[in-house]
Design goal:
The complex is a heterodimer of chains A (196) and B (166).
Chain A lengths: L8 H9 L3 H23 L2 H17 L10 H18 L2 H4 L9 H5 L8 H19 L3 H11 L5 H8 L3 H18 L1 H6 L4
Helix pairs in contact in A: 1-2, 2-3, 2-4, 3-4, 4-9, 8-10, 9-10
Chain B lengths: L2 H13 L4 H13 L1 H17 L11 H12 L4 H9 L7 H20 L7 H14 L4 H6 L1 H5 L1 H5 L2 H7 L1
Classes of the chains: A mainly alpha (196), B mainly alpha (166).
Chain lengths: 196, 166
Amino acid sequence: MEAVATGSDAELMLRVKEGDEDSFAYLLSRHRDPVVNYLYRMVQNAAVAEELAQDVFLRVYRARLSYEPSAKFTTWLYRIATRVALNFLRDGRYAKNLEPLDDPVNGRARELRAPEPNIEQRLVAEARQREIRQAVLLLPDKQRAAVILHKYQELDYKQIAETIGCSESAVKSLLFRAYEILRVRLAYLAGEGRER
Amino acid sequence: MTCQEIESRAIAYMDGRLPSHERKAMEQHFQDCPACAEQMQGFAQVSDLLGEWRDIQPSAGFQARLEQRIQETAPASWWESFWSRLLPVPAPSPAFATVFLVVLLVSALLVRYSPAPVETFERQQPAATASAGSQGVDEITLSQNLALLEDWEVVTNFEVLQELKR
């Protein structure tokens, strides 16, 4: 059941602190998909991403009694998610759980795909996504986190800094270096463009 | 503006978050520096490419699995939360714990406020003496007749003697 969310994230979390289980369900409905996708782009395995996302929300739930709205809720949430992701990436299990980039199951099967007019265009789109995923995968962990938080989660520089644990200027430097790496690696794709 | 200064502002420029005077300064630099201009154009293309990477849909069982994990790991009540901090064993039910504590408390109270133990033979002697004294009998005389004293209570209750007193 999709709960209807009312109130800000901090207000909902304070209600969870008081024992309101429905407010936790509301928060989950708001942030489940973004957190799952953040972790999916970090670890590039859909099943692992879901498992890690559950770890994140479990930690949020366990921390409810000591929650204080000293920072934005999303900053706190993604700080937990980033820590969980980085711990997983540094763990030896990471290399064993990478999805083959041409795996027809898992992530690719669950992608929210815009309808492609024909099979050839669909194959081209899938090939491009594979290249993009590979390029992001090759970024250092913190650069990858910064790019994903910036591009997909749309956190501002201050939030990214608090999430990753560095200064705002360091975030801009991380993003600059990451984008430069991606620019070089994906130059041929940018040149090819995308047929619509 | 120098190429080095461009680096610290490039992302904010791409995001449209620079103040207008800095944006203009950067655009002026791009006109003078093809390398920086090409780099900024490349950044914009990367951003577009990243946009092609679509989201995934979480599985249908995500919610149920999370709820199960919460039930398995989170204490159901303040009591279990308290117990889990004391001992790494499953908490007994609150009712059992309450009964146990009550029994413990009552036992402690009984031990603390229980009546004095049964008097020994030695303690009975002064009592017998006191009994005899309360009836007007000379204590010296009594001490000289200890054998009689042992049976004093018997003697004082002897019906025949009661008759003699009258």
